[in-house]
Specification:
Blueprint: H1 4-10, E1 12-17, E2 20-25, H2 26-30, H3 37-41, E3 57-59, H4 66-75, H5 83-95, E4 99-102, E5 107-110
Parallel strand pairs: 1-3
Antiparallel strand pairs: 1-2, 4-5
């Protein structure tokens, strides 16, 4: 039998990111980037408002690039993107606090992802 903590981390988390619906787990949102905003939100330390009928947590951001954020959290992979999409994704990653900014070179990368 699973403990309440392990079963709740595997339970689906429904997200509404700017009108785009996503489903994942708290484990996905907290493990790869434990210092991120998403990890803080879904760590269990905070009470989040859920939509009364869907149960989704709403985040007021453009949902277009969140799929790339979510896939990064799942498997560490980011697809090849145009320069414009790259900048948009970096802006979203910064919002979710998934960036390391090297002040010496002013080069932004995802944690553990060199050359993005």
């Amino acid at each position: 039998m699973q403990s309440p903590e392990s079963s709740s981390s595997a339970a689906p988390v429904l997200l509404n990111i700017g009108g785009t619906k996503y489903a994942t787990t708290a484990e996905t949102l907290t493990q790869r980037e434990p210092d991120s905003m998403l990890a803080a939100m879904f760590s269990g330390r905070h009470t989040l408002p859920h939509h009364p009928t869907t149960g989704a947590v709403f985040v007021d951001r453009d949902g277009k690039h969140f799929r790339h954020i979510l896939n990064w959290l799942r498997d560490g992979a980011i697809p090849a993107l145009s320069e414009s999409e790259h900048h948009q994704l970096l802006r979203e990653a910064e919002y979710y606090q998934l960036l390391v900014i090297d002040s010496e070179t002013l080069h932004c990368t995802f944690h553990s992802f060199i050359g993005f």
